[in-house]
């Protein structure tokens, strides 16, 4: 009970948590009897909208046939059950850096959901899941420099790590005081446009959808993040990793998957690895910005064949560096404002890399594709 009281104080005050140790987190996929992954149904795609402190996002990443990349996103933030804010974000990185990256981030008014919590609505914005659960349509007129009209159609099975995609925090596993949940569509077909002041961006190509929920203060849940979304003509490969703060033993949690058209080749929480193979000290933020990285998947396919896949190479220079505290809605800053040592920055990278993949006795296949990667440093 004393641990619970200390944690609640940290929740309210935003202060650093005591050191509970690694036993105070139950990472996704490590619960006894858990499957490696769970294939998503429509029911897994509901907005959860916790009544306590949380940040919930639905993010749609695109890699276009013409070489552009980016994402559109809705962020739902609840601060201590006192105030809810919603934001629509749009990011475009243009092919060959032909133009400066586009970034728009707009607070939303009069938000709401359909009766079953599948679709999101606000003034000038809609994010709707189809009746059969196979595609989303995203429309936004929240910013005149990024008028969005997109359709993301699932092109391979979606998945969540373990039984339900959730890692729980707390010294009593039956009564967690925080959580982290992720669910993915690793491969999507994308169509539609984003209209900017400089013209229309055709977004036809490949995509990836992520539904994430941080059911606690973000800086209490994780100190660092790595994320990789690779899309090529044949393969989609995604890998997400976070490292908890010292209060939870600097525990590393990973989930990832590899898909091809109509098929999930591998998904799970084991056999995954991320390394920053080269880095440089960023004099402005004092974080070690990666300049080269490797991402690795190791496991078995559904029919029992050994699978090994690697992406490695130069990822820098960064396409953008996001000062999180400068971008989040004003009231949300209260989540981390009083936390000593919290200085969140996201480094974003959009290089082309070659996936090397071997399945069973087949020869190693190599295929170049577009990558959207993030390295996030929080505390």
Automatic annotation (TrEMBL):
<dbReference type="Pfam" id="PF08622">
    <property type="entry name" value="Svf1"/>
</dbReference>
<protein>
    <recommendedName>
        <fullName>Ceramide-binding protein SVF1</fullName>
    </recommendedName>
</protein>
<keyword id="KW-0539">Nucleus</keyword>
<comment type="similarity">
    <text>Belongs to the SVF1 family.</text>
</comment>
<keyword id="KW-0963">Cytoplasm</keyword>
<feature type="domain" description="Svf1-like N-terminal">
    <location>
        <begin position="55"/>
        <end position="214"/>
    </location>
</feature>
<dbReference type="GO" id="GO:0006869">
    <property type="term" value="P:lipid transport"/>
</dbReference>
<dbReference type="GO" id="GO:0006979">
    <property type="term" value="P:response to oxidative stress"/>
</dbReference>
<dbReference type="GO" id="GO:0005789">
    <property type="term" value="C:endoplasmic reticulum membrane"/>
</dbReference>
<dbReference type="Pfam" id="PF17187">
    <property type="entry name" value="Svf1_C"/>
</dbReference>
<dbReference type="InterPro" id="IPR033394">
    <property type="entry name" value="Svf1-like_C"/>
</dbReference>
<dbReference type="InterPro" id="IPR051385">
    <property type="entry name" value="Ceramide-binding_SVF1"/>
</dbReference>
<keyword id="KW-0445">Lipid transport</keyword>
<dbReference type="GO" id="GO:0005634">
    <property type="term" value="C:nucleus"/>
</dbReference>
<feature type="domain" description="Svf1-like C-terminal">
    <location>
        <begin position="216"/>
        <end position="379"/>
    </location>
</feature>
<dbReference type="GO" id="GO:0005794">
    <property type="term" value="C:Golgi apparatus"/>
</dbReference>
<comment type="function">
    <text>Ceramide-binding protein that may transfer ceramides from the endoplasmic reticulum membrane to the cis-Golgi network membrane, and is thereby required for the biosynthesis of complex sphingolipids.</text>
</comment>
<keyword id="KW-0256">Endoplasmic reticulum</keyword>
<dbReference type="InterPro" id="IPR013931">
    <property type="entry name" value="Svf1-like_N"/>
</dbReference>
<keyword id="KW-0813">Transport</keyword>
<dbReference type="InterPro" id="IPR023374">
    <property type="entry name" value="AttH-like_dom_sf"/>
</dbReference>
<keyword id="KW-0333">Golgi apparatus</keyword>
<keyword id="KW-0472">Membrane</keyword>
């Amino acid at each position: 009970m004393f641990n619970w009281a200390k944690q609640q104080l940290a929740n309210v005050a935003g202060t650093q948590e005591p050191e509970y140790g690694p036993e105070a987190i139950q990472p996704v996929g490590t619960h006894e009897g858990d499957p490696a992954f769970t294939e998503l149904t429509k029911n897994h795609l509901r907005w959860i909208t916790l009544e306590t402190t949380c940040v919930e996002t639905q993010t749609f990443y695109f890699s276009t046939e013409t070489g552009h990349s980016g994402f559109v996103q809705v962020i739902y933030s609840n601060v201590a059950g006192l105030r809810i804010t919603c934001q629509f974000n749009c990011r475009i990185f243009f092919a060959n850096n032909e133009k400066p990256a586009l970034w728009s981030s707009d607070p939303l008014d009069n938000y709401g959901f359909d009766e079953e919590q599948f679709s999101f609505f606000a003034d000038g914005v809609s994010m709707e899941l189809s009746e059969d659960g196979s595609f989303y349509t995203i429309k936004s007129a929240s910013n005149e420099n990024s008028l969005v009209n997109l359709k993301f159609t699932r092109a391979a099975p979606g998945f969540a790590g373990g039984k339900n995609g959730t890692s729980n925090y707390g010294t009593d596993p039956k009564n967690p005081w925080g959580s982290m949940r992720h669910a993915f569509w690793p491969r999507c077909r994308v169509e539609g446009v984003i209209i900017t002041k400089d013209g229309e961006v055709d977004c036809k190509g490949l995509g990836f959808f992520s539904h994430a929920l941080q059911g606690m203060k973000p800086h209490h849940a994780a100190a660092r993040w790595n994320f990789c979304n690779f899309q090529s003509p044949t393969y989609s490969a995604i890998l997400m990793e976070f490292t908890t703060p010292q209060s939870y033993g600097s525990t590393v949690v990973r989930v990832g998957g590899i898909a091809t058209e109509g098929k999930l080749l591998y998904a799970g929480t084991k056999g995954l690895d991320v390394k920053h193979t080269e880095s440089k000290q960023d004099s402005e933020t004092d974080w070690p910005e990666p300049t080269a990285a490797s991402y690795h998947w190791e496991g078995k396919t559904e029919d029992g064949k050994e699978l090994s896949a690697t992406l490695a190479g130069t990822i820098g220079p960064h396409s953008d560096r996001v000062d999180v505290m400068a971008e989040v809605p004003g009231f949300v800053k209260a989540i981390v404002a009083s936390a000593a040592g919290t200085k969140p920055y996201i480094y974003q990278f959009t290089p082309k890399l070659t996936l090397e993949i071997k399945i069973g006795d087949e020869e190693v296949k190599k295929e170049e594709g577009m990558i959207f990667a993030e390295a996030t440093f929080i505390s």
